[in-house]
Specification:
CATH architecture: 3-Layer(aba) Sandwich
CATH topology: Rossmann fold
Strand content: 25-35%
Largest sheet: 7 strands, mixed
CATH class: Alpha Beta
Distance between the termini: 40 Å
Structural class: alpha/beta
Order of helices and strands: HHHEEHEEHEHHEE
Radius of gyration: 16 Å
Shape: globular
Length: about 210
């Protein structure tokens, strides 16, 4: 894959953690976004494509990190402990979740779909809808492709360097979510971190 020499070090959980902290330094924009998306989470919650560190607000219950990288999953499950939340990890693909239908209270998927081509992204969305119980919540948070250079030259440069090769505009992702899930989504778009990257968050409740 083009650029793989640049991205290969990110397979190390420690380097991944460092890069995430550097890119997100000095900005609190996501605190409010995360609070609106995950603020009252409880029960069994899946963190799809979790990476090695738990970054979103902890639910009251069990938070299960799901990732294809064994080292990421191990570090995730051994993350900071909370009296109200137990962390676990499962090695699995977002496109084929090893959980029963209607078995979890929430699925959250943060900055994962831009790593997946359309077919796998649709499969992952379908799997999240499948495993979430009726009345449960699905939260999709994504880095978005700016639509013009004037919207943010630095943001566009970092998008080009990102190891995710399937960045989409907000409109493209919104259309994919609606067509794949057949559900209604509440949408929020924002800029975040010091490079002023473009992001979007979509939330739905399974009827």
């Amino acid at each position: 894959m083009s650029g793989s020499w640049l991205h290969r070090p990110l397979e190390s959980p420690r380097i991944y953690d460092l890069v995430q902290r550097l890119l997100g330094a000095g900005d609190r924009t996501l605190d409010g976004v995360y609070s609106r998306g995950f603020g009252d989470s409880s029960g069994i919650v899946l963190d799809i494509g979790s990476g090695p560190i738990q970054e979103t607000p902890l639910p009251r219950g069990t938070l299960i990190g799901v990732d294809v990288n064994q080292a990421y999953v191990e570090q995730y499950a051994n993350g900071p402990k909370s009296a109200d939340c137990r962390l676990q990890g499962v090695v699995a693909s977002a496109a084929s979740l090893p959980f029963a239908t209607d078995s979890v209270d929430e699925c959250r998927c943060v900055a994962v779909l831009h790593h997946l081509p359309d077919a796998l992204s649709r499969a992952a969305i379908g799997e999240m809808v499948r495993v979430t119980r009726r009345g449960g919540r699905i939260v999709i948070w994504e880095m978005l492709q700016p639509t013009s250079w004037s919207a943010g030259p630095l943001a566009r440069l970092l998008c080009a360097l990102d190891r995710g090769q399937h960045l989409r505009t907000g409109d493209e992702l919104a259309e994919m979510l609606l067509e794949t899930s057949k559900l209604e989504w509440q949408e929020e778009r924002f800029r975040y971190a010091w490079p002023r990257l473009h992001g979007g968050q979509w939330v739905t409740v399974k009827p």
